[in-house]
Write a structure and sequence with these properties.
The complex is a heterohexamer, with three copies of chain A and three copies of chain B.
Chain A: H1 3-19, E1 35-39, E2 47-53, E3 56-67, E4 78-84, H2 100-116, E5 125-127, E6 131-143, H3 148-161, E7 164-165, E8 176-177, E9 185-192, E10 195-198, H4 202-207, E11 210-216, E12 222-228, H5 235-256
Parallel strand pairs in A: 4-6
Antiparallel strand pairs in A: 1-2, 2-3, 3-6, 5-6, 7-8, 9-10, 9-11, 11-12
Chain B: E1 28-32, E2 40-46, E3 49-60, E4 73-80, H1 95-111, E5 120-130, H2 135-149, E6 160-166, E7 169-172, H3 176-181, E8 184-191, E9 196-206, H4 208-238
Parallel strand pairs in B: 4-5
Antiparallel strand pairs in B: 1-2, 2-3, 3-5, 6-7, 6-8, 8-9
Helix pairs in contact in B: 2-4
The chains are: A alpha+beta, B alpha+beta.
């Protein structure tokens, strides 16, 4: 059977279920998948987390290294986030430098972390104007079954939360925890037909028209958003997404907090 | 969004440093049909932003493996020219411009009747000649006009504008200083006939009330931008055809 | 009608006209197209010019930034010229790093500027051996209808001529005009059949066999030349090109001077 | 191999800094079938090394010009994750990983029955999550298990381990300190049914006697690794099938 | 061309620092058929320049989209080896070598009877082993001989040499010092049967009289180079065929 | 005749000869091809050698430049080896950055040089922690007829052996020979059928299953090895290769010593 017919059948099946508010794996439209988090699994990293969100699996590692601050922020540490969609994670992922999907993923995660001020970058200053701690987050998709945005966000937040500034390794004082001020959590929904569903799996993403990722902080304030996909969302749908992002974000924050 | 600043960006009378009120956008100038070779083109100024957009297509899709047998794809390339920013920008795509190209492509694909041109590519090139906060919105606004100028059937002509927050106030269409020292930025693009959102990003720090207000400002302003887009196209079609297209 | 037949017909048409010393757009063989120059159109640049030569349109911008001199020229500023043939300008131009055509274009323009000493690079020294002004010229073709060499040369000369050293921005003294010593002007001709024509448009370039660009300074001395194309030019033709380059170069210099 | 050091790596009782004897390998843990999407996968720990391997294929070979009309090709990509080493590794392939990918591909091609799948590619991805000397052997060990997990017919399941020399002693399975301050390293992989060598490298300084001893240690240890590989596969097949493959 | 120097490059007797008169070229050595695998090859020394050229083809044209259904294309790659210059040159093409490759390809395409080989590519590789001013001329001179050695039909064998200006004098074939501290350089290549110019560049500062004189010197010298090219080919054909071509 | 049939015939021919212990060019299985070495052929290099091993031809050049030492070896000079399989050398070689074959070649040569301590890198220190001599070896295949490993090794060893530290050029003391402690020589064998043959030519490499390169020092100790190819070698075959590598390595060392 051709893959096109297959996907047509799958689409019909998912749409029919959604008409009754149900999903392939038995979840309701606002249910997230089971989350498993393993922190500090990588000793060579200064912080790390490997997480599973359903069958989607992501690892994030943090390396913290002394470096030179940017000229316009002489007392601020530097935060950098990269993501790779390695071919291990899905048959459609290819080797090579990050493509637009990986770049968008990294930038959306980065914005949530950065704009929420999760890491107190001012506390990363070693010598003003000369030396600061540079914090590199590297995210790898290990298995892709939808919603890499939230999986990568959670892995990154957990890795940073568990990270240690390796002062002793570099003769820059004693080791101490990376200073964390809050936990920015993203909640991603996609639109299938006219239904918005939370934490989509691969099949749901494939047949969706639009995607919205909303990142909130501990106060339920909005810190980052990104609409994706070739569809549109109405103002009412946007409002619904915002409500859910606050609520579900708070639940996830409790799990990993 | 640095968020931390003592800079006064809105005075006690609610006036912004460039003399605008909170709900005012910068001066906007739109011109359609400004380049000879492109199938469609447009020039847009919003404040100090200067943007060119050109459209080629529908034409054969390269690379081939991107072809869709059911419909055309829209491929947008957003590019900042080296001298468009205060520090020289190194030529070539960076991560920011790749992300912007992707979300503008997606926004345009919603409105273009891509199903009319199976296997084809509609190529949109946005060049930022001068940047001053708001280039992605200016670029998408220009691209929509260029697509219309190219005679490509669309559901709607898409306007885009940002709202944001600076000095604690929700403001329409942030300028460079407000963007640099403000607390939030929300670029948005809509289909004016339905107010459906085709592009939305946000970064910074906003309560729900602030965000709702920002969206309201931006959606209203999008309708104004749309009027200017339509005006530009009307002026374009009332001009004699460009020499190359006789 | 196939594009090959089209180009055959076009070729015949142009050749027939040239036999009578005429061209498609009514020009004589030594006539340049209408030149429109807009200088300092880009406030974010330290100097800029957008020019039209007939339907060929080019923008050039100058950025002037403090930097480190080369070891062998410790008191000289640095001049760098790049060109991009962006896909906006012509359906055959492709995205990506500059190809051989863009590189040749940038290098020929650069040689004219550099060899003529147009910019007094010694006056760009801030601290000998340590800091000098670096002058980046970036050229973008916006619409290509032939003769990018002369269009890019004119845009570059006009952009440099209008440029300001941004001393205040970098705390390096007050702003002052970029020191200019002369105006190098290139004149490009192509050979169609046995006729040399000045300032070719796209169609003329397409059917030409050889190209010669000759850059002269204010004294009518030669500063740069570049023969291109898969044809040859005779010594007599070369001589004719040199005569014309001096004469037409002087006219253009007057227009932009 | 710096070779020049005063560091005591083996004490007067022949004990190594991590408490092993000369002929002992580090703790090894092997697990098969650890990833959902891959056709086969494995996770291997050897001491502090942590390695994932995934197999996709046989599938269509890209790029096309690498297709072999007679048989499948094995394409391995070995990659160190950025945080797997003490200094951050810049993402993307470097010369070392390109070389390792090549020799692992060649080793695996010897054992896979490639003639069964003309024109196909069998793609093996090795990700080093944590590195501590011995990643290429750990990676090849994991890849072999992943190939078996993928149900790809093989002549043998390939185990790999290194022997080497440090502090003047021939040692099995060098750890990071022994590798950094030792005098030689000899990674090796064999087909256990015949003891034929499919991967061999050496660098450092060894006499013939030392080298022969090192090979003996490594070949013997390969058989132990092989037993652990087989165990892991048995455990895998006694587990219920993974959900995705129902 | 720095142009500003107190260096004496031509003495009161008109003698240059390497003992030549203004109108003399450096010692030239040309040898044809120096590499086994290439279809044609040549080695050229001009003063301290040492250059190898190899030709493969006519053969299938890669990449395909460059194929011309009417004729062959000539694709030249000019490359400076890392140790050929006083500072080590980083491997890989830079902007200078891309430009030189382009103009040499164009010069050669004029003389090769490309119409005999539709769709084919004639690939010319020029390697600069040692550089000392004048490598592009030496390279083109070598490439022409290599093409003839490959038996590829040509209208003419192209010689190339530069003239220039240093210390105020018009000089033939500038050496490194004259090139570095001189006032102009004019590389040129001609078809000797007609004196038509197929390659010409100039940079520096020359009056019309100086330039005309330079061209005269260079064209005359090109004929001398051509004689040496023909000599080399005669010697080549009087040698027994290379073993590989039996 | 198709190239596949050609190669089938060639394979049969070579195999038949080998059954009698003979090779296409009349050599025995342990015979190396004629070696011709020209040292210091490139004056712009600080050391160079162009060598022929039968019809395989390789040039190696050394550039020695002052630079900064690595942080963990503040008193050691730096040694870097690169190789390019330029399209001049063989119809199957392509332009572009080094592929996996060129990278493996460079790294195997590099290991032999580095691990043998051929170059006394401690003697390359200029100012501890600040400045050392950096030694760049660049290898180019000029004509490829098999066994680039040994050809590149010999060219590199000869180039280094002839190299001069250019102290005067950089104002860092007088010129002196690069300090050499030993001559690491690699011997490469391939397995055709069940026969191991030394110094394979192109045809022999094409039909071989496995390759083994063994590098020895002046004492006959092993310094580097690399098995390549999609075949296997038995422990007995390994033993034979090691014996031969010591013996043949010593002969080559005598020739170039």
């Amino acid at each position: 059977m051709s893959s096109e017919i297959m996907s047509e059948i799958k689409r019909d099946h998912i749409m029919k279920l959604l008409a009754d508010g149900k999903r392939q794996d038995g979840r309701g439209v606002t249910d997230t998948r089971k989350l498993e988090v393993e922190v500090n699994c990588i000793e060579s990293a200064d912080g790390s987390a490997r997480i599973k969100l359903g069958k989607t699996e992501v690892i994030a590692g943090v390396k913290i290294i002394p470096g030179t601050p940017f000229g316009d922020t002489p007392t601020s540490g530097v935060l950098t986030t990269g993501a790779e969609l390695i071919p291990m994670a899905h048959p459609t992922f290819e080797s090579g430098p990050p493509g637009e999907d990986a770049i968008e993923l990294a930038r959306v995660v980065d914005r949530g972390i950065r704009e929420s001020g999760m890491v107190d970058v001012e506390a990363l200053c070693i010598t003003p104007g000369e030396e600061v701690w540079m914090c590199f987050v590297d995210i790898y998709a290990l298995n892709y079954d939808g919603n890499l945005f939230d999986a990568a966000n959670i892995a990154t937040v957990c890795a940073l939360k568990s990270a240690t500034i390796p002062g002793e390794q570099y003769g820059k004082g004693e080791n101490k925890p990376l200073p964390i001020t809050c936990l920015p959590i993203s909640v991603t929904e996609v639109k299938v037909g006219n239904t918005l569903i939370v934490d989509p799996d691969y099949d749901e993403e494939q047949i969706s028209s639009a995607r919205l990722t909303v990142t909130t902080d501990d106060n339920g304030n909005f810190r980052a958003m990104q609409k994706g996909g070739r569809g549109s969302i109405t103002l009412d749908e946007l409002s619904l997404c915002l409500d859910r992002a606050v609520e579900i974000g708070a639940e996830i924050r409790k799990i990993i907090g | 969004m640095s968020g931390h600043t003592d800079m006064v960006l809105v005075d006690e009378n609610g006036m912004r440093i460039d003399g605008r009120t909170a709900e005012e956008h910068r001066h906007i100038k739109i011109e359609a049909g400004v380049l000879e070779n492109a199938d469609g083109s447009a020039y847009v100024e919003i404040g100090k932003n200067k943007v060119l957009a050109a459209v080629y297509g529908p034409r054969e899709c390269h690379p081939r493996h991107l072809q869709n047998p059911q419909k055309a794809i829209v491929q947008c390339k957003y590019n900042m020219q080296a001298f468009s920013v205060s520090d020289r920008k190194r030529p070539g795509p960076d991560r920011r411009s790749i992300e912007i190209s992707k979300i503008i492509s997606e926004a345009l694909e919603k409105v273009v009747l891509t199903e009319l041109y199976p296997r084809a590519s509609i190529d949109v090139y946005i060049e930022i000649l001068q940047a001053n906060a708001g280039t992605r919105c200016a670029g998408l606004t220009a691209a929509s006009v260029a697509l219309a100028d190219a005679g490509i059937p669309m559901r709607d002509i898409v306007p885009a504008i940002a709202a944001g927050k600076a000095d604690g106030h929700v403001l329409l269409d942030l300028n460079k200083e407000e963007d640099n020292y403000g607390q939030a930025d929300v670029p948005i693009a809509i289909m004016p006939s339905t107010d459906e959102i085709v592009l939305l990003q946000m970064d910074g720090n906003m309560t729900r009330e602030e965000f709702d207000h920002a969206i309201e400002l931006a959606v209203n302003a999008c309708h104004e931008v749309h009027d200017l887009q339509v005006d530009a196209l009307k002026r374009r079609y009332s001009k004699p055809a460009k020499e190359g297209s006789e």
